[in-house]
Amino acid sequence: MEYHSITGTDMCVSRVALGTWAIGGWMWGGTEERESIDTVHAALDKGVNLIDTAPIYGFGTSEKIVGKAVEEYGRRQDVYLSTKVTLDWTNGGVRRNGSRDRIMQEVEDSLKRLRTDRIDIYYVHWPDCSRPIEETALVMRELYEKEVIGAVGVSNFTEDQMDAFRQECPLHLCQPPYNIFERAIENDIKPYCKRHGITLMTYGALCRGLLSGKMSKEREFEGDDLRRNDPKFQEPRFSQYLEAADKLENLARKRFQTSILAFSLRWIFEKGIPIAIWGGRKPSQMNTMDEIMGWSMDYAILSAVDSILSETIDEPVGPEFMAPPTGLEVG
Ligand SMILES: NC(=O)c1ccc[n+]([C@@H]2O[C@H](COP(=O)([O-])OP(=O)(O)OC[C@H]3O[C@@H](n4cnc5c(N)ncnc54)[C@H](OP(=O)(O)O)[C@@H]3O)[C@@H](O)[C@H]2O)c1
Q1: Ligand 1 center from residue 101 Cα (angstroms)
Q2: Tens digits of per-residue pLDDT, 174-226?
Q3: Does ligand 1 have an atom closer than 6 angstroms to the CB of 39?
Q4: Least buried of 74, 124, 227, 295, by fewest C-beta within 10 Å?
């Protein structure tokens, strides 16, 4: 495993973080507790020491499973827990809520579910645009100064929103989407974070499974699986993304004798991102971890990836469909 120090903190975390949205079940067609706990343990066994979760992942389910898994593993002091705040489901539906009352309630709930007295990294999950960003930032600063949280992060923020946030609170990390197929941050968020010493911890490394090497046209998505509504998984785009993934797999096998999964994670690191979140829910999924570490790809390979994308995908689309309603629109 490779590790990275988070600027402005004393944390040194694994460059791969385990993502636990699917472990919460909601929007991923359900969950299985024992298998999920074993997945967390398998990741820890592989040297992962950073686990990313959120209250909204299964409305508390993911945090509860992560808390139980880390307690069972027995080395809480060696694990960094990252969770989030500001998505509110208490009045039916999901809305953004960055008010002081809601954040104070949520932090208490997350601490209980995670079975801990401190959250190592606390992210504002989505900006609540119904109120000034500074209002949310002040509450985050209060939690940071009281040492209830060890580092402050924001997720899905624009540069302007980060500017406003930083007026009132130190900002250590930023969590936007980033993978071979979803690269919007390259022009703005990535250089912004570099300029301001903010550590990037990006999500969606495998583009919801498209870059896993296991996706096919035959795959059926059950129940509330978000990929039933994901524009990348609808024709004619689905076939184009699968064809691009096939070509990337060939490139990875031919040049590095590795899987598209390992190649996709390594590509993120080669693009200058220090920490990538990889979402898993089965212990066997963690077996590929060792293949990601200790090698690099040159400029020719990075341009071969770009050529595959431009030759194969007519109308690329981002992950915007995942954005929850703003506080202004709902309740
Ligand atoms: N801040 C935010 O707003 C935000 C948004 C999205 C995600 N996140 C975080 O980022 C994490 C990762 O994002 P993500 O969950 O969207 O997905 P991801 O890492 O891009 O992909 C997860 C998918 O990859 C598949 N997969 C994983 N390991 C595999 C393996 N070894 N072999 C085959 N398939 C494999 C899983 O398959 P199965 O379906 O078969 O299990 C799942 O479909 C989340 O869990 C969450 O912690 C944050």
Answers
A1: 31
A2: 999 999 999 999 999 999 999 999 999 999 999 999 999 999 988 888 887 88
A3: no
A4: 74
